[in-house]
Amino acid sequence: MHPLSSERLDSGESLPRYYGVDRLVLLPRDPYWLFAYWEISTPTRNRVEHEEGTSWNRLNPVLRVYRYNAEGRMEESFFETQLLPEADNWYIKAGVPDRKYYLQLGCRPHENVFKPILTSNTVTTPRDDLSDVIDENWRLPDWQSRRLYWRISRSSLSSLEMMAPQTRRRHRPPT
Amino acid sequence: MPNGYMALILHAHLPYVRHPEHSRSLEEKWFFEAITECYIPLLRVFQELERDDIYYRVTFSLSPTLMAMMEDSFLQERYGDYLASLQELARKEEQRTKGDSVFSPLARMYRERLDHASHIYNERYGRRLLEAFKELQKTGHVEIITSAATHGYLPLLGLQKEAVYAQLAAGIDYYEQLFGAPPRGIWLPECAYEPGLEEILGELGLHYFITATHGVLYASPRPKYGVYSPLLTPGGLAAFGRDPETSHQVWSANEGYPGDYSYREFYRDIGYDLEMDYIADFLHPAGLRGNTGFKYYRITGPVDYKEPYDRQAALHTAQRHAGNFMFNRGKQVEYYGGLMDRPPLIVAPYDAELFGHWWFEGPQWIDNLCRMMGENRHNVEMVTPEEYLQKGYPLQLCTPNASSWGDKGYHEVWLNGDNDWLYRHLHTCAEKMISLAADYPAASGTLKEALNQAARELLLAQASDWPFIMTAGTMDNYARSKAVSHLERFLKLERQVRQNGIDVSWLRDLEATDNLFPGFDYRLFQSLDDTIAVEKSALKGAGAT
């Protein structure tokens, strides 16, 4: 036995809820959904409240979701999601696979004013279907291509089925 | 030339579950059960194929955390004790079932299996099971590859490329220390991929990686041959996509082979069935019932009533299933071969722990399959991905699609309401680690040891197992406390380094507990912006010495 005890190893720290920084992070979950988490530091929050002359709870925080066009070169459109003032993460139904997105977290002190506070990284949603891009040097005649892809899609297995034994493997039955 | 090829790939992984701080650990038992029920039986299969001079090929991925546990002397000793206690139980069981024509042969089967395991483990390899894998690697018939250091879910760590690089480089480095040469391929944890990853993989000198079916199928441009030929990615290495038909035949909950009624029932175990007085010494000291591995019944049907296990009938089924599997591969290559200018390649990856633990007859199925395919290699020939690449077929240049092999095929298993809170901390701590590596580019002595340990704690927190278990919802307290305690240890070390106040005795305790990857160098976390690739790979070599 090692002379190690849980008490000795315990760091005595507890994981902080926040780290005192400004950050907005965007992660893709699947072809249709994004996940964002954020932290607005106290100085930043104070500055915004000071500039607008009102408290955070009255500033109507929103996430603005920017989408690029299919070529990924320019912003095509955006939409906004109203947030709860105390929220620090959000799932966003972005809706379009294989597109680049980024976010701005801001507030709407007045109806026609969007005041951005944080900007996120950029992510691309996964495709959920065959690519439309065809390399002419690597092209099967259409009837052959249909035959090839038909069989693959026919046998595609819902991954839920695949996970079932895996879940059983890693976890013991209830006692 | 055969009509087609098949690559059988087994991925063996467990998170780093080493608990010297507890006298008995339920989680270490995951590892012990896997050794007894999966790794040793699979090794036996390959050793017998070698002995009988059978033509076969298997690609075996050993995750770095698993290799580290196999190499750890503390766990070696604990497993030795665990195995001895099972052998004792086996002898008790032989006594208990004496004269019973149904159960006594089964008790004898378990006793013989455990005696064989003990022979392999204690005598033949002196408790260093990895030696057996090294031996197989040398035959050229089994290709051993590895995975990211602690099986981090790379797309969700990818906010910092350095974190992804460190996961991969530390894993590759450790493999190289053990096997004397770098791995040629890599198993991406959970088959999770996102575009851009291939650049880091290529930079690390890898030749190939494996993706989920739709990783290759939905690649862009559209792959001409679907998943039946690997792709060349922009990173200069190949991507192999999982064949859905072979996963279905084995994994499908309803139609998959492991559910056959003649196979052994997993859930009827003497750890649950026998009197507490009799079995208590072999269970958790707190009196918790659990699996012992002694299971005497067969699946029988979708009913609670179970009939006794008939070993001969089960082995016969395993043989029939292997024949069926081979027959279907023949049909498959016939179908796809007619559409392709080259023999199709079927990529069949599985969790190694399925074979033997959950599917008791799985190793015999593999044994039968290899023997049958060896005899019929003119039709479908077993290959390793590396061998297939060496055949020199031109590969189509495509970028694979972001994907994983988890439920729904993308990242949701590892990113949902049960585990999403974790990423804020993983990303922040990775950022802190990267800046430590930048601020202390040439630490030595205790400072260097503290930085190395901080990086180890971060790697351990990054394991994909913790968010996976949180989603699955059993043992989720353990997963949460593992992730949190590694993060807290990291944060405290980071603060001590920054404040120049390292608590050396605490550091030594951590080094003795979270002790994986000797020779690991925290500078793998150096910023990729101010370190060019060449410098970093030179560093990688230096870290190993």
Estimate the strand proportion of chain B. 5-15%
Helix/strand/pairing category of chain B: alpha/beta
Q: In total, how many beta strands of chain B?
A: 10
Number of domains of chain A: 2
Class computed from helices, strands and strand pairing of chain A: alpha+beta
* Average residue-wise pLDDT of chain B: 94
Overall shape of chain A: it is flat
Keywords:
heterodimer, A: 175 residues, alpha+beta, Immunoglobulin-like, three-stranded antiparallel beta sheet, 23% helix, 28% strand, flat, B: 545 residues, alpha/beta, immunoglobulin/albumin-binding domain-like, 10 strands
Can you describe this structure in just a few lines?
The complex is a heterodimer of chains A (175) and B (545). Chain A has four helices and eight strands, in the order H-E-E-H-E-E-E-E-E-E-H-H. Chain A is an alpha+beta fold and 175 residues long.
List the SSEs and their pairings:
The complex is a heterodimer of chains A (175) and B (545).
Chain A: H1 6-9, E1 23-28, E2 33-39, H2 42-52, E3 61-68, E4 75-82, E5 89-93, E6 100-107, E7 115-119, E8 123-124, H3 142-155, H4 159-170
Antiparallel strand pairs in A: 1-2, 2-5, 3-4, 3-6, 6-7, 6-8
Chain B: E1 4-12, H1 26-51, E2 58-62, H2 64-71, H3 73-96, H4 103-124, H5 130-139, E3 142-147, H6 154-157, H7 161-179, E4 185-187, H8 197-203, E5 208-211, H9 213-217, E6 231-232, E7 238-241, H10 244-251, H11 270-273, H12 276-279, H13 311-337, E8 345-351, H14 362-375, E9 380-382, H15 385-390, E10 396-397, H16 421-439, H17 445-461, H18 465-472, H19 476-498, H20 504-513, H21 533-544
Parallel strand pairs in B: 1-2, 1-8, 1-9, 2-3, 3-4, 4-5, 5-7, 6-10
Antiparallel strand pairs in B: 6-7
Helix pairs in contact in B: 1-5, 1-14, 3-4, 7-21, 13-14, 16-17, 16-19, 17-19, 17-20, 18-19
